[in-house]
Protein 1
Amino acid sequence: MSRAKALLEQIHRITTQPWTLMEVCGGQTHALLRHGIDQLLPPEITLIHGPGCPVCVTATARIDQALTLAAQPDVILCSYGDMLRVPGSDGRDLLSLRAAGADVRVIAAPLDVLALAQRHPERQVVFLAVGFETTAPATALLAQHALAAGVSNLRLLVAHVRVAPVLDQLLGDPHCAVQGVLAAGHVCTVMGEAEYVDLAARHRRPIVITGFSAEELLAGILACLRQLEQGEHRLENAYASAVNANGNGAARVLLERVFEPVDTPWRGLGAIRAGGYRLRAPFDQLAIASPDQGSSETSEDCCPSGLVLQGLLRPNQCPSFGSRCTPDTPLGAPMVSSEGACAAYHRYQH
Amino acid sequence: MCLAVAGELVSISEHADPLWRMGDVCFGGVLRQVSLACVPEARVGDQLLVHVGVALTVLEPEP
Ligand code: SF4
């Protein structure tokens, strides 16, 4: 019998009552739907898709800022491919600006931005830096290298967000139906276990660090259910091949040296206490100030992505899903992003 | 954008400052330069988990 089948059997065997789990990471949402795991679980198990897609939670004000900068003739604006199609407050995106002549470039690695700035000393190179703690060390490294190399035409528009604070806020909400959490493996590769040990204890819910393959997801779900059935609430690491208890020490030192936590609006969720990063001195000389940090933001009328990100609305329950809002004509970020919950539903459930 | 990908470290360009240590990593036949700043312990032949150009961990060998 395959390992996946054996895990599924155990899951069926131990489940005696309804449980609601949340997977935090959009990559996990996609994998769960791609493998049809949501269909194979016992009917008692409900999976809620968490806010784990940094593209989806980047505040509209930050996208607007990127759009304004990209429209300036001396600016080269770079970011990851998914960011180019996220609509700003007026519905425009970076891709449409590029079609109209703006210099917008897709990069695969932040260090590539340094080389780009060095090749174009006459231009301002702006990097729209998004991502969770998994991605932030690469931006931190870029900041270190840029200062060391004395590059003066590189600026960072930082929209990095932190996972533990948003989980803290979601789990603290009295309406929150989530009983157990599958934590995002790759975030923990960097951050380690400590923050999550604390969250599991404080919110009295099991949290299981989980990987991304079918077997890893099933192992995470099984570990979480086992705790729930036994009335436990601990942090458990079901992804030990890539996550050790302390995370990655060098990456955490980089993060600490370059960034400091700051209250940050998440698209659709409002302000999250310490929910993001900003550059600290001396790296703040690379920063493009963000006027909105510390303020709050509510979700747009036409796209209830905030409810989706909190697990209160399934993507296919959204009135626009599949009609006005599709991957080709996205109304909101969760349909744009390759890790967004709405895109996952559209791709795997049609 | 935020998944990490595993590949094998095939060569290292050492540097006095560990922040600048780079390596060539092979992803299914495709070589890419990645930063080794966060994996000072990495050796040639290791399987690395790489994310946006930065190696984040040396994967435990399969038992
Ligand atoms: S289906 Fe579209 S409009 Fe509805 S929540 Fe998802 S992204 Fe927003």
Note: The interface with chain B takes residues 25-27, 53-55, 80-82, 108-112, 130-132, 134-135, 137-138, 141, 144-145, 148, 186, 189-190, 212, 240-244, 248, 250-251, 254, 337-339 of chain A (CB under 8 Å).
Protein 2
Amino acid sequence: MKSAIAFWNILLKDMKNYYLKPPNISWGIIFPFAWMLMFFFRSGKAFQIEEIFAGIVAMSILFGTTSMLAVTITFERRGRSFDRLLLAPISTGLLVFSKISGAVIFGIINSFIPILISVLYFKSPVANWYLLFIGIILLSIVSTLLGLSIAVSAKEVFEAQTFSNFFRFPMIFLCGLFIPLASMPVYIRPISYILPVTYGVDILKYSISKANYLFVWLDIIVLIIFCVGLFYFSIFNIRKKWIV
Amino acid sequence: MESIIEVKNLTKKYESLTAVDSISFSISKGEIFGFLGPNAAGKTTTINMLIGMAKITDGKIFYKNNDITNKIKKFQGCIGVVPDESNLYEELTGFENLCFCASLYGIKRSKREAKAKQFLEIFQLSDAADKRFKSYSKGMKRKLTIAASLVHDPEILFLDEPTTGIDVASSRQIRSLIKNLNEDGMTVFLTTHYIEEAERLCERIAFINKGRIIKIGKVQNFIEDISQSNIIEVLFESTPIDKNVLLEKLKQSFPELECSFKNENTIKLISTSKIDVSPVVSFLSSNGIYILEAKLIRPTLEDAFVKLTGIELDVMKKEKEKK
Ligand SMILES: Nc1ncnc2c1ncn2[C@@H]1O[C@H](COP(=O)(O)OP(=O)(O)O)[C@@H](O)[C@H]1O
Ligand SMILES: [Mg+2]
């Protein structure tokens, strides 16, 4: 009960203070929108929404989550308010869980925007809605945890921002968002396989148009393993680096 | 007295530096216990180890006779911590900050809002309740940080330099708040580099320097120990010769006296036997010093501190200016 109160209030405070602030909301809406427009103009009229649907959804999740947590946590660390959380009688696990929840929810909400546009405006079919949601949730969790791993290694807000860009821009090209894995050079593929986002994108592609490259069940299992691994990696790092 | 916290041979090493060097002490229930020492003495590091914000290199911590060295997390619910720098949320209001802090301890909404209001009142911050923390003055920030450390009714309050960098009026208010809390039964552990603050607030103090406790005891006992000695202060207008040269000369001429400068215009003489002032006065006059006053002084904690630690008061005063 006590833990639930702490969890809920950390989540609520982060939501109010960071995620629902006007600049973040508009960023979350404009960004996927701008990418869709870009594809629209580049390919003239005849582009298949199915080709970019999954990629845009993955991108809005990736951009909504990774930098969010990296920046907010580094910000709280610098202002020392993060110490408050470390001083509270809640376990590091619960603390990490509370902190990532806000970003995960933000990522999920962000993904709704391209989905709504694709489905309502472009009349794109979705093959499997359940799997789409599972994919969105897993991808949000894993990219939030990637952001947290960055936050744990950065000292300054600026550094966190640079790091997260350093990771997510290459991921757009390496994880099969727009360039299918199958058409990627063989020597690059090993890199794709060690990036968790690859598996999330594969689930999205399968659930939207069955255009997956790997096996969906394998994707889900690999993503869960990544989530658990990154979660414990973050807890370990917080205890090791922030309590010196 | 029943001990609430007991520390045995606590040590903290940062690579080659030993910040805290095998210190032992205990804090009794209901007392104000203070760590007095200059900058970098190891005060903050000691507090950080006790509250679970620094790893312990060696030694043990007991809470009510239970060894909590490796499970400080379990003990964090019973303590309130006021760090040397405020650690509240700049973008939240005073009221929201207190409510949020209480929620971290699992306090229900109605209760935490009542607590927040109550503490804003006690700390005379009700008018600023709905203003953002970042608009607060330094003194107000410190007061709200203290309030935030109390919302969950802790048993022990840790205060790291509670009045450093704060204006005089707020400092006075904070000291009387600490006194009042203690009178209502709160056990307090504070650190300071203000001798007067330690003397005014604490029942017992430990002098700490370079990670070691030099002496520990009741304030009264420190003063009694030193009152065996006689102290004379000589106030003069100015000195034509260098201070250090003058001190050397004095020490040569009066080897039985302990001589030091209290400030620019005051020389302090300490001796275990009665001091005959006239030879000193004529010695100073013959060195071209115009004497305004020479008086017998009642020994203070300051004198005890200087005698025991060998730290000149000037050093402590400079610390203050640095902050
Ligand atoms: N995180 C740290 N890493 C390395 N050295 C540290 C760290 N924190 C404190 N120290 C060193 O430990 C010593 C004691 O510091 P501190 O406990 O902050 O002193 P005080 O609070 O009495 O001013 C200082 O020499 C300081 O430089
Ligand atoms: Mg300190």
Note: The longest helix of chain A spans residues 49-78.
Protein 3
Amino acid sequence: MRLTKSEAVIALAGLLIWPFLILLNVTLPDAANRPNQPKEVFNSIIMIFTLILLSYLVFGILLKKQPKARVITVMNAALVFGVFFFLWLVVVGKIGKLNTHSFPSPNTVFDVFYSDFYFLTYKSSRDSIFRAFAGYFLALITGIPGGIWFGRTMRRFEVAYPLAKVTAHVPPVVYLPYAIAVFPSISHAIIFMVYIGAFWPIFINTLFGVYNVDRRYIEFAKILGASEKRILRRIIIPSAMPTILAGCLIGLVLAFVLLTAGEMVGAHTGLGFYLMYHTDIGYFDKVVAAILLISFWVFFWITFGFDMVQARLLRWMRRI
Amino acid sequence: MNNSKVILKATNLTKVYPPDIWALDRVSLEIYDGEFVSIIGPSGCGKTTFLRIAAGLEDYQEGEVLFNGEKVFKNCDWRRSVIYQDIRLLPWMTAQENIYFGLENKGLPKDEVRRVGDKWMKIIGVDNFKDKYPHEISEGQKQMVGMARVCALDPDIVLCDEPTSSLDWHTRRYLQVELLKYWYNENKTVLFVTHDVEEAVYLSQRVVCMSARPGKIKEIIDIDLPKERWEVARDDLKVLEYANKVASILSEELKRGKELELKEGH
Amino acid sequence: MSRGLKYTAITSIFLLIIILNYLIPDAANRPNQPKLVFNGMMFTFFLFALFFLVYGHFMKRQSPTRVRTIMDISLIFGSIFFLWLVTIGKLGFLDPLRWPSPNQVFYYYLADFDLLVVKSTLATVKRLAIGYFVAIIFAIPLGLIVGRYPNLHDRLYYPVAKVVAPIPPIILVPYAIELFPKIDQAVLFIIFIGAFWPIIVNTIYGVRTLDVKYIEAARTLGVSEKRLYTKVLFPGALPSIYAGLFIGLVLAFIVLAVAEGIGGSHSEPGLGWYVLYYADLFEYDKIVAAIFLIAFVVVVWTGISDRIQSRLLKWQRRVE
Ligand SMILES: Nc1ncnc2c1ncn2[C@@H]1O[C@H](COP(=O)(O)OP(=O)(O)OP(=O)(O)O)[C@@H](O)[C@H]1O
Ligand SMILES: [Mg+2]
């Protein structure tokens, strides 16, 4: 596989900026106002990340197991975020003119992942991810069939659409107090909120996708004597699929938004709670660590969960 | 005519599309000021490509295109405006706004835009649907707008890429005559790409016949008919003679083009 | 049953509700409900439905499908209010603390007029409007520019957006409150972030999927770079931009509710604050009142934006 010059530069820079970060971290003295930062965790995580990138590069470029454009995009992203960490490390950790309370250095933030491993990295993540998926799953199994049913005829669509549009805009956070009062536990209430948040985009997109399926195909299939079930399976769902999937993605993003919102406002466990609790007692290194971890999980589930399922589904759809 | 100045000049123009499609191979052509030139050739011989390069929409690998002595290379200009086969009205503008759009691009003051635009709307006959959006009018009406917006712009050369090929019989004839009159009255230069032998012969003073793959100029035929062409009958003996001549030159190329097209269809 | 009769029946549900409200005595566990405001609202609904019944149906001045949709929706609302009033307000089902009767709920629009209807609503609408419009002003031009330059998109925008866009903006609330001198600014900032990403993502999508043939046509008509943006790229991307505005508003509203809940106070009220504040005091009737008020704000807001949308997009062929 041949790389152009600029592509090669990007791939190399995206890889090498990470070990360079470790080098800087070790050689440059810490800022005067924050001496003796615990560097081990930050350095090790960056090290692991470098190894992952390296093996991806070898796997992708040398063994040609990945399309070139994707490898370059990944290395490009690695470069952009490398620059971000570089600025953070140098400006905050090494130059250190900013106040230590609200601007923690990356070394102290990453140390939290280890020192608070049980509560933050393991338990809070576990609780949050469970809630997110429970709510999201419920939204999928109700939103899609519901959308299909309401989108099938014009009359149902015309009733469902204006109502859905208004209700979808009411921020589900305001239902939280109610949910807490009605559901047996706060966890259930948060799952309910995640459900509501993810439900509307999934429902509305399914509604739209199904309603806008080209009527001629349906009529044609009817003339050929296809049953309602067959029409659904062979015509409506495949042609509405891209729209439905777009709704599912928005739903997933909203699920995380409502998860963190609910946990910040009401819960006693989970990443959102961890974040809010340490805000109240003023530990901003832990706040930033929680922000990073949440961002990581969201990115992880969208990229390695959603995108892959979507690619599978679309390929499968094309086959039938 | 040969003592008037050259307005568009292509020398050894070569265009290769990736990966290895030779659309034009060392094409040289001079177009004089005030001329009406048609390019005709089988499908896929590079007519559209030539026109797009002249309009400044496409790059090329070798050779040179000069417009009024200046190099044309991916630089568009209203002085080299295009009437497209697929019309390309901007769907978010009404017919009238589409016509005003180019005039506003020229930086004309508002009342001037209105004066010139309305004049051409009247001449071409866009008036009674000027407030309609493109999706609300017929293909023929759309192309009338497409032509009016170029005429109003007052370009030095009008580049036409099969502007009549998607139209009904009546509108096609109507627009051909409008274009001829525009060319005659305003002393314009027109470069007209077409598939249609009769159309090429009936409209132009020179017909450039191209051969397919790689696109080359095969022969250029001068049409010796009066400039007031709309007064000539379409079945005039001379017209038919010229048409026969062009057709015989093209027939083998057309066959080759068909084969190429078939091969690429699979 | 003829259609006229059916519509008359639906319209009269609202009158029926008012009459029943006076005739049937209040439930024992919710005595002396103040009925004025609820009845007034039902009367307004009645007049609304009556208008469509007489002017729309009998005088045939409105399209039959529109009248039918309005009547379907009226039937849904009428039944909900009817059931709510009878089961909870009159028969006294469920515990009165968490499940107030409609009479109690709507009474607060009068009783708490100043704080709820005026101060909180105005503050919320103001914040939403400012944050949302600032986001629009930044996101659309930026999106048009990024969408136009593939290199800028692939090398910088895409890697950043892929990771940053789905991060729940809410987790930045504590940090924003820490960094900004005033809470109002922090709230505005968060709304801005929340609305920014969906709008820019969809603007870019709109520009990148716009058919080049329109750009080419504009260029051969001598368009300048500036007019290309305002007269071609922007209107061409507008349908997609509108999809982004919709999601952006949903997100902005969620984020606003949480941010107000965390940062608000009596002196800095807002509907989100109002709900969460009275949740702590277990005054569920006020919460329900606020939820309905939010829904009302949403109806007005989306109504206005739909008007603008259909005017700006009237060049599009309608999907019938
Ligand atoms: N963007 C492109 N990429 C690759 N090949 C192209 C591209 N555009 C045109 N071609 C090829 O270049 C050749 C010339 O194309 P062109 O469109 O100029 O032909 P044409 O003479 O206008 O044909 P027609 O009469 O069908 O309009 C064709 O073989 C075509 O397949
Ligand atoms: Mg062509």
Note: Residues B 47-48, 161 surround magnesium ion (ligand 2) (CB under 6 Å).
Protein 4
Amino acid sequence: MERRSLALKVGTPVAVLIAWEVISRTGIISPVLLPPPSKVFAVFVEMPGQIAVNAATSLYRVAVGYSIAAVSGVTLGVLMGAYKDVETALDLLVEIIRPIPPIAWIPMAIVWFGIGDASAFFIIFIGAFFPILLSTRAGVKHVDRIYIEAALNLGADDKALIRHVLLPAALPEILTGLRTGLGVGWMCVVAAEMIAAKSGLGYMIIEAQRVLATDQVIAGMLTIGVLGLLMDRGFRALEKRLLAWM
Amino acid sequence: MEPVLEVKNLVKSYDDLLVLDHVSFDVHEGEFLAVVGPSGCGKTTLLRIIAGLEDYDEGEVLLRGEPIEGPGPDRAMVFQEYAVFPWKTVLENVMFAPLMRGLDPEEAERIARKYLKVVPGLEGFEDEYPKKLSGGMRQRVAIARALAAEPEILLMDEPFAAVDAQTRNRMQEELLKIWKETEKTILLVTHNVEEAVFLADRVMVLSNRPAKVVDVVDIDLPRPRDRTDPEFVRIRARILETLGAL
Ligand SMILES: Nc1ncnc2c1ncn2[C@@H]1O[C@H](COP(=O)(O)OP(=O)(O)O)[C@@H](O)[C@H]1O
Ligand SMILES: [Mg+2]
């Protein structure tokens, strides 16, 4: 069974690669439109430095924009979940801004922050902020009253209640929000770099497309996919450790 | 001597539902008072009011002569549901009240370890999360956690209702040992008449909802008490009769 599932898991991608190689090599589809995987992988060998630098740039932008979103999203989410007045005051605003896709902010981001890092930080922040905010708020609202009452009974004030009860009790939902936000942030950096930056993986693939270097485009896409997967896996491992009590 | 707790003419209703109808009683220094009453009569409501977790319509609740104001560790409570914090280890749970009192972590840990010794069976489990513990063990942690608040009066809401009969008997004996050792004043609520007679100095009997005090029985039997002793059986029968006649 173990072997069987491994064969299935690896077998499908390998079959797709082989079919893709054949289709492209035999010219069923022009190699310009669909470069064979061998050519795509060759890109990693020919220009590893360029890919690494652009990947590092994108990761750096996500790290900054996402950190701001994480801190502000968790803070506001806790306050909205814990205090009815804060929720009432912010709810409508959140509901109006939330449905605007992060991509739709790019034009204003360019006007405000110009082309470069700051615009990318902003777009990533917008994308990651809302999933984090909403999960945190929901998590805090779902905290069982019994724990809040036990804490009050034992002498907790508001600050202690947030730190010792609301945050840890809501942590499973907060982490889900943070993981979703990271995924959205990673998508946003690519979009932002295609329009509002002159570096990064998004910029790299849009530039390669301009000169029809489709092998580089697909190599960039694969890099984005693999890095996204690694971040998600890393995050899940972290979640498992932080939630050992569950 | 002034009672630790005085409850005078307490009246409480939820909307149109009258739950407590002029309930009055005192609890004296070092006394073990058990309150028995049918399920749904208002026992939990009474304890929650004393704990400051619920407001009331009329009457007075005085702790050492002073009206209570909101919840506080001077009236630490063991809840009927398992209310130990699942995200904290046993030791961290018991450190909670000392930390809330403003003690530094070393001092809080010293106090927590002291009460972890007072409650039998917890040694060796200090670093476990509650999910690993049985219901009885969780309730032992809850007792240690409440004791570590060093309350004027320990409030207990059917603490052994959810554990099996054998464990319940053992935990009742443990509670008597704890009571003797710490000289705490205890107010315990239960619907189990045998439990009340086994544990308490006095048993207060409440009527069906709305709860009124219908009897107060002094239990002068020496401890440890024998549940099959004729006098024990007679007292138990008398209380059951009072309850049955309601
Ligand atoms: N928050 C509440 N709102 C409305 N009714 C309540 C509430 N809490 C308890 N009650 C009702 O008050 C009565 C007494 O409840 P409770 O004090 O829990 O009884 P007991 O602990 O003796 O079983 C019950 O009829 C219960 O349904
Ligand atoms: Mg109850």
Note: Chain A has two domains: 1-34, 42-242.
